[in-house]
Every structure is written in C-alpha cells, then in structure tokens.
Amino acid sequence: MKIRNRFAVVALLMAAVLAIFSMGASAATKSVVVNVKCVTGTPVPVSLTMDEVREAIGVDFPANWDSLTVLDEKGEQIPFQLDDVDMSGTVSRYDEVAFLATGPVKIVVSDEEPEKKPVFQAAFGVDKVDEDNTIIYSLDGLFKVKVGKYGTLDIIEYRGKEHKYARDIGMIRYAGFPYSTWWYDENYDRHEEKTTFEEPFRIIKLGILEAGPARITVVAHNASDLFPGMRQEMVASIYTTGEIRVSNRVVSAGYADLTKLFTMCGGVMSDIEDARHILPVFRWIDWADELGITAKEYWAEQGALTEVDGTPYITFADSVGPKPAWWGASYLFCSPERWRTNFSAGESMGVAECLMDVPEVAPDLEGKIEMEHWHLEGEWRTGYFRWIADEIFGLRQKNEIPINIENLEGRGPNWPLHMIPGDVFEHLNYYLIYDTHSVASTVRYLEARYAELDSVEVK
User: Fold this and answer.
1) Count of CB atoms within 10 A of residue 72's CB?
2) Domains in the chain, CATH or no CATH each
3) Per-residue pLDDT for 2 more than 50?
4) Model confidence pLDDT, tens digit, residues 150-175
5) Rounded to the nearest 5°, which phi and psi values hold at 179?
6) CA 429 to CA 201: how far, in whole Å?
7) Comparing C-alpha atoms, which of 343, 352, 281 is closest to residue 312?
C-alpha cells in the first residue's frame, strides 16, 4: 500500500512537471484589430505594410510571419495574401498584407511555425500580349486591365463590354527647366514638358506580382534622365471589386526646377458619348476668386450645379465642358477634392478617382498658388502647377480685388517647384469602376464608398 502511494505521488509530480513544460512551450500569439466600415455591401480593400503590422503587434515580439492569419468578427479565417512589394524575395517592412473586409478584422501572428500555411485560390489570370503589354483579367469575368511597358494601366473591359474606360493610370506628367542654373545665377534656361512615355522614362524595375485571392499588384520603378535624380516608384493593386489602388511616389535625388508635377490618368470613358463629369464643389478655384464670388456661385453661373440630398455638386458633359474663364482646361488652379467621376446613363456605370490624402486649402493667395491642384484637360491631373497665368494677377487688379502677396514684383519668375535631394511627392489614389443609373445614385455611392475606403484604421 505504501509502495502504491509512492508511485501515485511520483506519477502526479511527473504530470505536473509535464504540464508546466507544456505550458511554457505553447505558442505565444499577438493580434491587432483593423477597423473597417462597410455600408455599400461591397467588400472594402485593405492594404497594410508589414512595417505597420509589426509596429501594431510590437517590435519585440518574435513573430513567425508564416503563421500570420486574418480573422473576421466571428473568428473565421478570411482569404488574404502577403505581397512581395519590394520584390526582394523575402518578407520585409515594405511588403503588404492585403484582403477584403466587410467589417472589423483581426490579424493574428504566432511566434511558432504553423502546422501548415493556408492556401487560397488566385482571383486573376494573366496573359502576355507582346513584349510590352500584358492583360490582367478577373476570373469572375468582371473586368480586364492592360498593363503597359512602364507599368501604367488601362481599364479596357467591364462586364463583358469593351470601352476606353480609363488609360495610363499611374502615369506622371512633369515640366520644368532641365538645364537650370537657378541655384548659381538665377537662370532657368529653356523649358521642356514630358510624360512617362514622352521622355521616355528609363525602366529600373517592373514586375507583376503573383495573383492572390484579393488582388494582383503591378510594381514599376522608373527614372528620368532629363531631370537626373528624379525617380518614380509606383505600386498599383487591382482588386476583385473592380478598384485599383495606386501608390505613386516621385523621389528626388537631385535638384530640379519644375513648373508641373502631376500624377494622373487620361481618357476616362473617352469613347462613351453621354459621359458626364461629376465632383464636389471646389473649396477654392481661382476663377471664382478673380470675380470676387464663391466657387458655388461661379459654377451656378455656368449652369453646372446639381443638388443631391441638399448638397451641390459640379456636373457637366465631359466631351464639351463649361467654357473656361481663360486657357483651355475645364478646370485648373483649384483645390483637389475627395473624388471625381465620369458617369454614363446609357451604360449604367461610372469610373471614378478617389484622392485619399486631400490637402488643406491655404489661407492666402500665395499659398493657394503653391499648393497642389486639380486639373482637367483631357487628363485627370493632381499635383503642382507652377506655370503661373498672368490672368491670376491681372484680373484681380482689373476687378480691384486685393492680391496681398508681399513683394510680388520682386519675386519675378521665381514660382517653380524647387526640388532638392530627399524631396518626396506622393499620392494614394483609388480608381473605381462601378454600376450606377443616375447622377444622384452616383453621388450617393461615391460618398459612401469614399467613407469606406477612408475608414480603414489599425487599432
């Protein structure tokens, strides 16, 4: 009896020791909540850099990234992917975890190797057309996108119908004085204007990453030889929802005196005759200021205002456009807003651009001129426009409107954007192709969709 008791005690001790070791060896996990609001019913694209995930989880946690998973509110795994955005072949801070969500999600990571990594079906196919062009198509047949030589994107098909829905998404337009010696003797020399295609850019890096369940990504790094040191770094991610997320950066490693620096796309619904251009009323447009009236009053005089749910929006036929106050653009020298779109009642669809980092409007005229602008002249442009029109000052003087720029005459021609080493010009845009049937439904959808895209927040 004593021997049996002794063995029983030993057995209990061994079980306790094993339990302790088992607890000590169990995998530790960390998680981070990503808030997502979805009211339209269309899943919301989410993209986070691994640096953002790492910071949220805690840099001291020894994460095994092979264990990463994404869970919905019910704790069920949702399809996700980890994209090698810097094309290094290993997980780095620049890589991105991407997925679609209809509500808050949780990213979970362990410090141990998982028994097996989840495998999800790719949602896209890729066809190489020729040396310079590739077609990306969604396997559900929703849309097709053509990727060009420099990584720019054209939306060429939607719901089985071919049109010129949008072209050259991701392109940049730039102009300035490539032979300037301004820093030495204040001489600009001759002026030149180019685009991604017109210089043309020198290709540094170009790749289409492996398709995943949520998106497929195009990475393009290009360099200018006309303005030495100026490089473009573009990452365009095409989601199954028919939306394209474009991160476009221009990085300067030299000196450049520029009059234009725009990210842009062109030819939006250019072959659809009834396309109408719609956008929120500008917080500032110089054409109104020159007349001493508000932007709303200016567009009302043009007969280009439509109210939706009590809020005015600018609307006009894209092929004609209102008569400009001067020069040939439908609008320029004006504030960038949340979104702009072309809409076709005949096709019951639209294409929109959403600007995710909307700049504040400067309080003074000099600041307004120097801030980033929106520009519509066949191309949808966002960026700096420092080719200053004489009308900006001349019409104010004519209409006896104060200019209030200190030493305006002394400034002379010194309006260009003086880029120096280390300067970065960056935009994050979404390009949307979507179903709609009226101006009102277009506005309501885009306001709601913009709020969803802007709602993504790491807690």
Assistant:
1) 16
2) 28-110 (2.60.40), 171-458 (2.70.98)
3) no
4) 999 999 999 999 999 999 999 999 99
5) -110, 20
6) 22
7) 281
